[in-house]
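ARCHIVE CARD
Drawer: 12
Card no.: 0347
Subject: one protein chain, sequence and derived structure
Cross-reference: see card 0346
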Amino acid sequence: MRLLLDVSAVPARPVGAGRYVLELARHLDLATSGAGSTPLDITLVTRRSDADRWRDVAPRAHLESVMPDSRPRRILTEQFQAHHLGPALGIDVWHGPHYTLPRRLAVPAVVTVHDLTFFDHPEWHQPVKVRFFRHAIRSACARAAAIVTVSQQTADRLRELVDPPAPIVVAPHGIDRSRFHPVDPVDADPANPAGPNAPAERESASERELAALRRVGVDRPYIAHVGTLEPRKDVPRLVAAFGEVLRRRPGSELRLVLAGPDGWGTEEVRRAIVEHGVASRVVRVGYLDTDLVASLYRHADVVAYPSRAEGFGLPALEALACGAVLVTTADTPMAAFAGGAAVLAPARGVGALADAIEHALDPSTAGRLRSAGPVAAAAFTWETSVARHLEAYRLATARGSRGA
């Protein structure tokens, strides 16, 4: 099978859907090598300046670095010109992993729909994005030969809103276990970090991580949040709940660490920090690389991910895999995969979120959740996700192109 995967929308510092595309490309590429490999020929369509990154991600893939670097020109090129690549390259199936497809594709196509918040919560997005993605999602789903969603909730809502003619394949995200794993149980013992006969490099593993965190301004104890500062993440409510937790714990040295890039909604977060009088206790570290994010999860007292809606919620899953004590939102995909391995809070109410954080800080609760998290996360692998994507590609090629 000759697959074209359009990776041109992934920014230099990927989060959310961008992380999904990176891991999908990496693991599709891995699936083509070794014993029992998948007969798959992969072409990645990248931005003109972005070839080196993708050559490292998927070294066996063919690269077509033809997309403009500027976002408006890239979108126009994708929508009105990129369709020529399919026939020119002899492609069997085109995958648009970020909601959109070219308008006049002559080859079977798969599109990934991550969430439907552009329809359900337009107030969480910039108006120009709402208009574009509402149209793009409807258009892509009408023309796709198969659709991928990253959770059952998104699949169900897509059927309600769009009722697409193509089959929907649910392909949850996975875990990069080389990075997202718990602290070694011996290394975690503060009295004897690695045992009397352990090698020196193992003895210092946690200390090296803690030193790296200190270099970006993070000291224990802390509550961590990882994600773009945007309205759906509900960070202002988290800031308010953190202030309430501090009022309940006079003398506490607890900090709130906000990791992730600025988005549409950063000003509201800044106002909340000032309004609730926690400026001296909130540490904003910006975008962190993946290894440092994993360290942040491993050493946090609590990881708080109170997002009101997600297609999947990969940061919450990765936190569980690290043995973090997770607080997240009820009735979301995060609650579905966490099961009993997280403290769940309603999507509204500062006091309720503060109560959930307090519960998570309780030593007996924390001990139980640190053990339960990796067990809950173990079912999610990128290998399984790739298998589901391959199913979508086979469905698409069997059904053929749906035209313009």
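Annotation on reverse: The radius of gyration is 22 Å. The chain is about 45% helix and 15% strand.
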